[in-house]
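Q: Could you fold this chain for me?
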Amino acid sequence: CFASALSLLTEGAGGPNLRIQEFLSTLGHVAAVFRLVESGFAQIQRASGDLYPTMVRKLKAQLLESVLVLLEGRLDTKIHEATLQRVDHVVLRERIVFVYLYFIFGASGVASGEVRSEAMASVPLNGRMQRWLLPTVEPSELYEQ
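A: Sure. Below is the predicted structure, expressed as structure tokens.
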């Protein structure tokens, strides 16, 4: 039911109706998306025995897709500015790091806290990739290299 409602919102966000797009970008859709993306869905995790169950992955992907469609639906910057004001950058970074660790090091290693070095990674990391995970790294520094 929630996925169907989200699909309807996504269709409205991408459609040609500018008022719906402005309404969604300022009403709280973006903030609500980031609250749900931040959520761990603990009951689903416990029921599935997985730190990042498939159902949660699909839901979070659909949530972020609705924000992406909202951004892509306009040629001017009105929606982009409204969205940037409402995006939680800390949550976004945390999710990127979590998903990266989950898929590179594997669900079991991340869940149990056994990941201690890049040697345990299923995909080898080089120094450049590892720097992205450092909290003090400036993205423009890495981009310019």
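A (continued): The CA atoms of residues 93 and 135 lie 10 Å apart.
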